[in-house]
Amino acid sequence: MMRRREFVTLLAGAAAWPFGARAQAVNKLVRIIVGFPAGGGTDIVARILAEAIQGHYAASIIVEDRPGASGRLAVEYVKNAPPDGSLMLFTPDFPMTLYPHSFKSLNYDPVKDFVAVGAVAKSMLAFSIGPEVSDDVKTLAGFVQWCKAHPDKANYADTSAGATPHFTGVMFARAAGIAMTPVHYRGGAPALEDLLGGHIPASVNPLSEIIETAKSGSIRVLAVSGATRSSFLPDVPTFKESGYDVVVESWNGVWLPANTPNDIVQALSAAMHEASKSKAMLDSLAKFATEPAFQTPAQFAETIKSEVARWGPVVKDSGFVALD
C-alpha cells in the first residue's frame, strides 16, 4: 500500500508536469476507473497518470476505485459508460488478455466493447522464496531440486487466481519439469505476509510489491520475468538467464468505451505520450519499480491481440477454469 508521505510527495510534484496551454478534449469531470483497491499498485499508477494529464486532456480528473470480481466489475462499468471520453478504464493486462481464457464466460468482450488507447507503464514479476526453504537455496535450479526433494511442499503463492502471476508460475513449473501447486491469494500483501511467515515456500508478485522487502534481505528473489534484468534489482537474473524459457511483462493500460469518437481517443493518446516523456512521471513511476510503456492506440491494439493469442494455450494446457 502507498505510504501517506509518498503519496503527498507525489501529488506535490504535480506542478512539474511539462504541459503548455492547449485546448482540452473533454470539458467535464473525467473519472479513471480502477478495479482494484486504493493504495495498490494499479491505483498508484492510475493516480500518477491522472496528475500527469490533468489540465491537458481535461481540467479535472479523479481516480475512482471500484474493486470486485478480480477487476471485472470495473471493466463492466466502463463498458456501459457513455462514449464521450469522461470515463476511462485503467487496468492491468490480465482482465483483458487472460480472463477471456480463464473464465467460462465474461460480461464483456475486451476487443468489441472497448477502444484500446494505450499502455501506460510496465513492470516485471518476481519469483521469491522465504524462510520455509533452506538457506542454501539461492538459485532457481536449487529451488527446483528442493521441490523434487519436498514434493509435498512444492507450492507457490500468486496474487489472484487466473491472473498473470498465477500463470507465470505455471509456465515456470512446466519449463522446470516439476509439479508446483498454486495457492491463490486476494492480493500481494497477504501472499507476501505468508511468504515471510514461512507458511508458503515461494511467491510470484509484481516487482513493485516485493522490492523493499527484497532489499531488506527478508526474502530471496531468485528471478525476474523480463527479457532483460530489472534496473531496480540488477543482481537478480531473469528466468531465461537461469535456463527456463519464461518471459512475462506485466503492464497497465487505458481503454475507452466502444464508439468513442476518434478525436477524443487521439487527444487522450497524445496526453499520455507527453506524460510518458516527462521527468516527473519517470521519477514517480521509478519509486514503485515501474517504467513508462507508451504505445499508440494501433500499437496497443496489436499488443492486446498478441497477448490474448499467447495466453490461450497456456491456460488451456493448465486445465484451469475460474469459477466466478
Labels describing this entry:
disordered N terminus; alpha/beta; 39% helix; 324 residues; single chain; 10 strands
Note the beta-strand portion: 15-25%
Distance between the termini: 26 Å
Shape: globular
In quaternary terms, these chains amount to: single chain
Which parts are unreliable, with pLDDT below 50 for 5 consecutive residues or more?
1-21
| DSSP, total strands | 10
Tell me the series of helices and strands, N- to C-terminal: HEHEHEHHEHEHEHEHEEHHEH
Helical fraction: 25-40%
Mean pLDDT over the full residue set: 91
Overall description:
The protein has about 325 residues and is α/β, with parallel strands linked by helices. About 40% of the residues lie in helices and about 20% in strands. It has twelve helices and ten strands. Strands 1, 2, 3, 4, 5, 6, 7, 8, 9 and 10 form a ten-stranded mixed β-sheet that branches. Helix 2 packs antiparallel against helix 11. The longest helix has 22 residues. It is globular and about 65 Å long. The two termini are about 25 Å apart. The N terminus is likely disordered.
Characterize this entry briefly.
With 324 residues, the chain is an alpha/beta fold. The protein is 39% helix and 19% strand. The chain has 12 helices and 10 strands.
